[in-house]
Amino acid sequence: MPSESPQTPWIERAVASPAVRAGYLSLVAHVVVCIILAILALEARRSPPPAPLELRFGEAEAAGDEQLAEVALGEPIEEPEALAGSSPAAEAVPLPAEDVPLVAVQSPIDAPLPPAEEPSPRLDPAGLPARAVSVRVGGGATAAAQSASAVASGTAAFSPRRGGARGTAALARGGSAASEAAVEAGLAWLARHQAGDGSWQFDLSGCRCDGACRDPGTLTGSTASTAIALLPFLGAGSTHVDGPYHETVSRGIYYLLSRMQPTPRGGDFCEGTMYGHGVTTLVLAEALGMTGDEMLAPSVRDAVRFTATAQDLHGGGWRYLPGQAGDITVTAWQIAALKSAMLAGVEVPSPTIDGARRFLDRVQTQGGAAYGYRTPAAKPCTSAVGLLCRMYTGWGSGHEALHRGVTNLAKPGPHPTNIYQNFYLAQALLQLDHPVWPRWNAKNRDQLVASQARFGHEAGSWFFADHDTAPGGRLAHTALAVLTLEVYYRLLPIYREEAVDRDF
Ligand SMILES: [Zn+2]
Fold this sequence. Notes:
CATH class of the largest domain: Mainly Alpha
Number of domains: 2
Number of helices: 18
Oligomer: single chain
Bound molecules: zinc ion
């Protein structure tokens, strides 16, 4: 170290002093620490935020491949005239699976999103959290064990909806690449017409359609419209937990939960009619059965209790208002909801099912092969509804009247415009593996695909010239058409063999 002298400039003396050098070192050290902390903070901000939903997926995917029975493709036991000249499409050879874009013909991710992803604040009357439905990531052994007993049957029942299993089931049961594409386009239309609050409305209000689609419905009651629109998403494997439309479904289910009115007689989703309560209960029960999300179980139990207490104790059916003498269409939705709830592990009172059977006895004719609306004055549509209800409530596939009734209804082929009748008859025919199914289905499938709107805002939707269901408008017709084209997956547990063959 050079010796300091009086001639050394003061600045050099200062720099050379031990105190100043220590200060420099401290300053440098602090600057380095600050830089490191800043880098760490930036990295943390780049990381994705915590997922708003914790996911717990169901059982192994595609577990049902080997369980898919081939449709009996034998000759029809009776060659209906209306089917004898069916188009060559009816004879279509199944396409090889690898050539068929069965699941994502039109990627749902690319489809236009609903107008708002966040639930509207005004739809939070009960102070529910933004995500009312709780699900868990991975589902550790404990969570899986807790839900296993409740959803054992439901989880297995839904396996054909997923991925490759869905495509396999569609081809094996009579679907086609075109019908699967129609399903995807239908789902995209439904997603585009979800209102900003997560609901759907029969009159297509609250979304960005703004009159661009014709034939809006006139019915009111947002639980019915929201629930009927959600069913096709569940049918295609999307739940509030997973699937390409899980956000759409989550917002819809959240909306439904926010509409429940607690009463001493159970959870009321009516909003005016038991039709809305029945379809809503069906949606929640399916979502519970498909995911095992225990947060849904109390709502389903409450809804089932309301269904039971709203039954007409004398006649055994349901109608618009709780306690009214029943009609077969509202009753059918309650029966479907109860069956689905049972498959999800929710207890259903046996007197309620006994009452439903009593109602069917009261409106049947021809020894149980035909059914009327509120009396035994039978029509094809009410007969199709009644026969499927019989399957839900214990009539086995070998029941003579059941087989006779379904065969009679299938003779003329699918109705050209009555989507409601075809929706029920398709399920009944497939459940029975009826010999006429391949021909009946090919015609029904192809006329549905051909009648789907192709252009403009209506693209992907349906509307039929059907007087009975016109009040539901384009929304209801689209939902029913998609559900009919999804029948091949046996997606809804109430449509599976074990759901039919197993008594309540
Ligand atoms: Zn529109």
